[in-house]
Design goal:
Blueprint (H helix, E strand, L loop, with lengths): L10 H22 L1 H10 L1 H4 L13 H20 L6 E9 L2 H4 L2 H6 L9 E14 L4 E12 L2 E15 L2 E10 L5 E11 L2 E12 L2 E15 L2 E9 L4 E9 L3 E10 L4 E9 L7 E9 L2 E11 L4 E11 L2 E10 L2 E10 L4 H41 L1 H31 L3 E9 L14 E3 L1 H6 L6 E3 L20 E8 L2 E8 L4 E3 L11
Parallel strand pairs: 1-17
Antiparallel strand pairs: 1-2, 2-3, 3-4, 4-5, 5-6, 6-7, 7-8, 8-9, 9-10, 10-11, 11-12, 12-13, 13-14, 14-15, 15-16, 16-17, 18-19, 18-21, 20-23, 21-22
Helix pairs in contact: 1-2, 1-8
Main location: membrane
Keywords: Chaperone, Membrane
GO cellular component, one term: mitochondrion
Amino acid sequence: MLYHPDKHRDPELKRQAEQLFNQVHQAYEVLSDAHSRAIYDIFGKKGLEVEGWEVVERKRTPAEIREEYERLQREREERRLQQRTNPKGTISVGVDATDLFDHYDEDFEEMPGGGFPHIEINKMHISQSIEAPLTNSDTAVLSGSLSTHNGNGGGNINMTVRKVTSAKGWGEVELGAGDILGPLIGLKVFRNITSRCFLTAQCGLQFSPRGLRPSCSLMTARHLDQNTMGYLQWRWGPNSAMTTSVVRDTKRSHFTLALQLGVPHSYLMMSYQFKFQDEDQTKVKGSFKTGWFGTVVEYGAERKISRHSVLSATVSIGVPQGVTLKIKLARASQTYLFPVHLTDQLLPSAIFYATVGPLLVYLAVHRLVIIPYTQQQKEQDLELQRKSSATDIAKKKQEAESAVLLMQESVRRVIEAEESKMGLIILNAWYGKFVSDTSQKQEKAKVIDVTVPLQCLVKDSKLILTEASKAGLPGFYDPCVGEEKSLKLLYQFRGVMHQVISADTEPLRIPKQSHRIESES
């Protein structure tokens, strides 16, 4: 009724009333329709903008609407997926730093500059793959890799075509070629046997310089309970083996127990990972592995250092492998590995430096680089959000000012009615970010006067506001996007002054006796 154009004779007020009345009309259409209202209650305004709702049955529960919304979102993501590739890559750089602990002093004395340990890169590996969706059920994957170790290296390229045959299975064909092992032909099939069990079969034929080298593998897995999987794998070929393992993954831990019997490798392996429930997703892990070729103990930690990056460090202690420090950085779909071989012997000094060194370096880098960088990124994101919403803020401000103009006559009548019975009169009301420091006077521009809008909401000498943000009230707008806001009121009730300050999302009900300002004697 307040915004109806027919209630205003002034042409300018009539034009502003029409704009606000159209918004009220749109809101009424959504909230008066049970189907649209359910969508809005669950997903907000963005949910109403998703294409495909017009073909959805209207008599649905909120749970069914949520499932339908997720289905429409998945279909939209699938359409996007068909238009782009999914690159994945791995770079591994092996460092030989054994001279730090296993050097020979007499050799260094004979060589110029021999006092400095010799550290070198002795191996590298680079692999990359891209996906190309052909249809909704067919995907082609092109991958390649290059490796070098102590001056000798090689590479290969592979192409795989995968076809999803049904909701229970898929199959893929692989063709590859390399400069060492020769051409490769492979076939892999996946099938869900039951809802708790699946099977994977794979066979390949390698055309090597020594003749044909066939291989075959068969793996079955079963859900033992909600968080536990059991695996059984059989491989036949150059490295024939039978492997069984149990993996338990919960919200706070990850446990793996595996046993392999084969020629030439047989081993028993056990690993445990504890997951901290913090913002950085910190994980601490340890593992033990023993077999025909020795024993290895590993321990390490993993932590998220930015939105898309995860850093981990692992110390590997083994006989006869020695001590190795493994550093891994995963950023989005790219992985960078840096295994640093420190010594061939079990030296306490190497174990100490491999454990303490990365920890000290991480703490220093985290404090001096990562924390300032993340804070700068947050500030940039906030500034970008402010700039992107500047137009929207200007529009909301104009709408609020228009609403205040349209409220003047209604507010005059409310004040007259309240004064006649010594009711609730809003003397001053401010909304936004309040700054107490007098040196920051420019911050006062982030507070707006909302006396008229609040007086218009007074009914029967009462004002009731819910816990929702006050920026959505008629005549309000957000003067400081992304910052904490408050509402400050000075009002009169029964001739007595009252004052209250309320948080933006805090419910408010006035008048209250506790808001009363005691007069000075």
